[in-house]
């Protein structure tokens, strides 16, 4: 009983006018999408007859967190779930599902996973062409190694710019990064291979090239689990 009296006393001492003024200032800092989220949530709480004082306190905490996370391109929905979920939680105490930004591993892990993916894919395609009529198909040793190295960097860059669940924006950067990275990778492979003397770049026959590609895929699958690599393209 004493605890409830203390809580009521603390609530009575809250300057709601100051909180509302602060909320208005925080609301103006929100993106259009986050403002829309708060407006819809306010309507839901009004429909549930929640008191203005209660909403003022709740919104003050929410707005501060949303404004702080906007710098990281995290939306209100990412923080609190859908408007329906958040309203249900505030009214009934039932927490909805909040979509969290996907975690990504260190750069060297992403490079390793990408090298095995793109290098292995290139080797497999070349090896398959040998068995489909192109008996001269094969990759030079240094060309193969260069493809793994550069392919790893290409996938690492693309992965870092790939849109993540729970994080707003970045799609245009992803498209530009992907296009530029692939163009640079193809040009480096084309010109780099042409500059390598044939004596230093012996051709690996198609069957062996295919085998190397398959081993790379198996290594990718194994190391992804072994090293717990997260946030990869595949």
From TrEMBL:
InterPro entries: DUF1129 (IPR009214). Pfam families: DUF1129. It comes from Alkalibacterium subtropicum. It comes from the Bacteria. This is Uncharacterized membrane-anchored protein. The chain crosses the membrane at residues 110-131, 137-159, 171-200, 206-223. Keywords: Membrane, Transmembrane, Transmembrane helix.
